[in-house]
């Protein structure tokens, strides 16, 4: 089958990207479905803590959902690779939506605490929505690496935007209307977006009759990449906890969300620029080195300047290292994963990130509690340095240089 790509090379990179047939339609549905990913945790915490009066319970429930997602994600993705996006993603999303509604009803009608854990764990069947979109781009742009780079950059920017706007929307809904409004709206957006996305069958990657027997986890170069993703996730988790602790120590806890949003804004902007004009010769090692350097800025701002505005500015700059790193690493995952198991490979990335976020949150929380909030902001810098060291070690040990090609 001939490639679906035929567009003037001199067009604006993003205008050219969305000139391909069907891309605007599936992107609209995907963004609609992806926005709730930044809403559900905040909505659940507000809803549970408001009803049960316990942030500890709310945190435990959301942590259970996070762990369940890390376990269920690769399994759901494997089914998608085998049977197709529409056949698996829609029923999996329905189960997730029912889990959200069950959680809402359990909270509303004061059901036992264990039901909250069971209901929220059911939401782990949510497909990797960003991964579904990236798989479509990888199929459509398989003969155009430059355009695929732009598409991956756009998807990373979209991730940052959704996780930046999602908590704001959830906070507005739960505070303005009723505690369950965030969960209810998120469930509706997820289902509507997924139905719109999967209805675009022309751009859906075909199911291959002959499947690879090699699991993505066993593909050359993938394990070290996943280790890098775990360390990168630790950057995100520890930065969030450290920033909240620092803002709280300075009497500005309510401003922590806005300060963290600046980090996402920096990443979003850098991702769009990186996608439109990739510097020649940039590799994963360069991106990781940049992240390791820039992640020292929040720590320095907190320790030297000692003010929240200084930390906010440092986070904006530090965030600019995130998207290029994620885009470059995700491109390598796409290259190293068997084409017929691409969704599974990208889902493993999410599992690695979630594992890192959990570890980073724990490490950042310990440092904030036992050392100081400013010292806790050294944890992201240490995690970024660890990611760089993992990559450097794996590159030296790999004769085929499959990590940084």
From TrEMBL:
Pfam families: MFS_1 (PF07690). The keyword Transmembrane applies. The chain crosses the membrane at residues 31-49, 56-76, 88-107, 184-203, 224-247, 253-275, 287-305, 311-333, 345-368, 374-392. The keyword Thylakoid does not apply. It comes from the Bacteria. Keywords: Membrane, Transmembrane, Transmembrane helix. InterPro entries: MFS, MFS_trans_sf. This is MFS transporter.
């Amino acid at each position: 089958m001939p490639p679906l790509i035929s567009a003037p090379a001199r067009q604006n990179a993003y205008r050219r990207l969305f000139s391909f047939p069907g891309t605007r339609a599936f992107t609209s549905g995907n963004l609609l479905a992806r926005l709730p990913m930044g809403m559900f945790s905040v909505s659940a915490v507000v809803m549970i803590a408001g009803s049960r009066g316990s942030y500890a319970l709310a945190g435990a429930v959301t942590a259970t959902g996070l762990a369940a997602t890390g376990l269920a994600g690769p399994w759901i993705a494997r089914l998608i690779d085998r049977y197709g996006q529409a056949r698996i993603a829609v029923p999996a999303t329905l189960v997730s939506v029912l889990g959200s509604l069950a959680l809402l009803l359990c909270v509303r009608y004061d059901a036992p605490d264990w039901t909250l854990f069971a209901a929220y764990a059911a939401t782990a069947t949510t497909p990797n929505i960003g991964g579904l979109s990236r798989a479509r781009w990888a199929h459509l742009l398989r003969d155009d690496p430059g355009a695929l780079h732009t598409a991956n950059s756009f998807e990373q920017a979209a991730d940052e935007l959704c996780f930046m706007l999602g908590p704001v929307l959830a906070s507005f809904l739960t505070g303005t209307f009723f505690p369950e409004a965030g969960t209810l709206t998120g469930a509706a957006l997820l289902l509507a977006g997924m139905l719109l996305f999967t209805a675009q069958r022309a751009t859906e990657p075909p199911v291959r009759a002959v499947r690879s027997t090699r699991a993505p986890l066993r593909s050359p170069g993938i394990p070290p990449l996943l280790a890098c993703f775990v360390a990168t996730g630790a950057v995100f988790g520890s930065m969030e906890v450290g920033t909240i602790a620092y803002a709280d120590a300075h009497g500005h806890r309510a401003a922590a969300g806005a300060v963290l949003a600046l980090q996402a804004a920096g990443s979003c902007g850098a991702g769009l620029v990186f996608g439109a004009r990739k510097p020649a010769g940039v590799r994963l090692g360069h991106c990781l080195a940049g992240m390791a350097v820039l992640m020292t800025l929040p720590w320095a701002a907190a320790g030297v300047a000692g003010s929240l505005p200084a930390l906010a500015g440092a986070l904006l700059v530090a965030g600019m290292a995130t998207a290029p790193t994620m885009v470059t690493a995700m491109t390598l995952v796409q290259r190293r994963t068997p084409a017929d198991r691409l969704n599974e490979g990208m889902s493993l990335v999410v599992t690695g990130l979630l594992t890192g976020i959990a570890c980073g949150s724990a490490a950042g929380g310990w440092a904030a509690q036992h050392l100081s909030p400013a010292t806790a902001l050294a944890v992201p810098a240490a995690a970024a340095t660890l990611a760089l060291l993992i990559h450097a070690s794996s590159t030296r040990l790999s004769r085929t240089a499959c990590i940084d090609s």
